[in-house]
Specification:
The protein is built from 17 helices and 14 strands. The protein is an alpha/beta fold. The structure holds iron/sulfur cluster.
Length: about 425
């Protein structure tokens, strides 16, 4: 493999000052990630150790699943647990045994911590070790925190994937690993393009099942598909793997830059790269052009929510002709989003964290054409005459890669078209 050249950060917004805020926040918690993780990992079960509030959040977020046997559930902590009047560990062991007996299809069990389990300091790490000893080798039991204390909703996926890294087998094989839970169809498209360039073997984390034979080692290079996987990246690097730095694969340019970083590291010729990417690139450009008619020249304001804000701002500014007023993100991990940040021309306010009232004041003063924010802020802002896009839709909808570039642009153009239609 070739040595990878990191992308320059000393231009664009890469060195812009960052407005850091630490006040009241309006975000979902990490339990939300279970909604897309349980679809991806076909032999996994997510057992939230939490309260009725946690159970309600999951049920309402995944309402469609009531028709199928779900692969997530909540072990509800009652008042007696919270008061320390019963042994919560014993109850948990009983619940897990009942669950695994009833569901022989489960091969990986995640004990997911919540605010209540953290407040009473229930040691789920110890529980996972104990339960692994009881149920191995049939079931692997891991744990991570999905609590909303000081976290945002995409950190649930990061914590889940990071919890898997230490138990992956060691391998010396030269391989590429794509990291991030993408819908299968999108994952297949990206893997297909890489294989067409002659790159392989290509593996994915998370794998669809434990049988997928994913190992990690010093000859592993990996590319993140999501910008919120900082802990997972650190855990992989701790196992000796090497991360490829690139803009994230959103839109035609983002996907091309991401693929090119991987192709360069694997010595793929420019001619081969162009041969493989030319047709899908043209399709992506054409699909984006339809939405660009609406987005071009409009302004956008990002509230911090999904941690996708920086790569999406790059897409909207550079590929759709929008002007970013403010790019707010819960955490600004320049090591990961630096290449996207560097491609955004100076001008927008870059903010990290949130003080929601101050940020609402800035948004109202700017009156952007489009505001990307959480569900809780969208309705009040719509009532004030602002067009909004729910940030959470961006993780529930397939948006990565060439074939989804038009859908991604469409997610942002639809609220503007709707408001124009209502104004007629
Ligand atoms: S983990 Fe915390 S924030 Fe999330 S639903 Fe449960 S109590 Fe609420």
């Amino acid at each position: 493999m070739n040595t990878h050249r990191p992308i320059e950060l000393s231009k664009g917004c890469g060195s812009a000052p960052v407005l850091k805020e630490r006040g009241q926040r309006e975000v979902f918690c990490g339990l939300t990630g279970i909604i897309w993780l349980h679809r991806k990992m076909q032999d996994a079960f997510f057992l939230v150790v939490g309260s009725r509030t946690c159970a309600h959040l999951l049920q309402s977020a995944a309402g469609v699943m009531i028709f199928a046997e779900p692969r997530f559930g909540t072990a509800i902590l009652e008042e007696t647990d919270l008061a320390g009047m019963v042994d919560a560990h014993e109850e948990l062991d009983r619940e897990v045994a009942r669950l695994l007996e009833r569901r022989p299809d489960i091969r990986q069990l995640f004990l997911v911590g919540s605010c209540p389990s953290e407040v009473i300091k229930l040691d789920l790490g110890r529980a996972a070790e104990r339960l692994t000893q009881v149920h191995a080798p049939r079931v692997r039991v891991l744990n991570y925190s999905g609590s909303g204390i000081e976290t945002t909703f995409t950190q649930g996926e990061d914590a889940c994937l990071a919890s898997m890294v230490p138990v992956l087998p060691q391998t010396e094989t030269e391989q590429l690993v794509l990291v991030g839970a993408l819908p299968d169809v999108v994952e297949d498209q990206l893997v297909g393009l890489l294989k067409a360039m002659g790159i392989g073997p290509v593996k994915c984390l998370p794998a669809r099942t434990v049988e997928d034979d994913l190992g990690i080692g010093p000859n592993t290079v990996f590319a993140l598909t999501q910008p919120f996987l900082g802990d997972t990246a650190a855990a992989l690097e701790g196992r000796g793997a090497t991360r490829l730095s690139a803009p994230f694969p959103f839109g035609e340019q983002g996907t091309t830059d991401w693929l090119r970083a991987i192709a360069d590291a694997h010595g793929v010729s420019a001619a081969k790269f162009d041969e493989v990417t030319e047709a899908p690139r043209a399709r992506a450009r054409k699909a984006i052009a339809a939405a660009k008619e609406v987005l071009d020249g409009k302004s956008v304001f990002f509230f911090p929510d999904s941690q996708l804000e920086v790569p999406l701002a790059r897409f909207l500014v550079n590929e759709c002709g929008m002007t970013a007023v403010e790019i707010g993100t819960p955490y600004l991990h320049k090591g990961l989003v630096g290449p996207d940040l560097a491609q955004i021309a100076e001008g927008p306010t870059i903010s990290e964290g949130q003080d929601v009232d101050l940020q609402l004041d800035r948004c109202r003063a700017a009156r952007p054409d489009l505001t990307v924010c959480g569900l809780g802020l969208a309705n009040p802002l719509e009532a004030e005459g602002l067009s909004t896009k729910w940030a959470i839709e961006l993780v529930f909808t397939p948006v990565h890669g060439y074939e989804q570039a038009g859908d991604l642009a469409g997610l942002f153009s639809r609220p503007l078209r709707r408001r124009e239609a209502l104004a007629l």
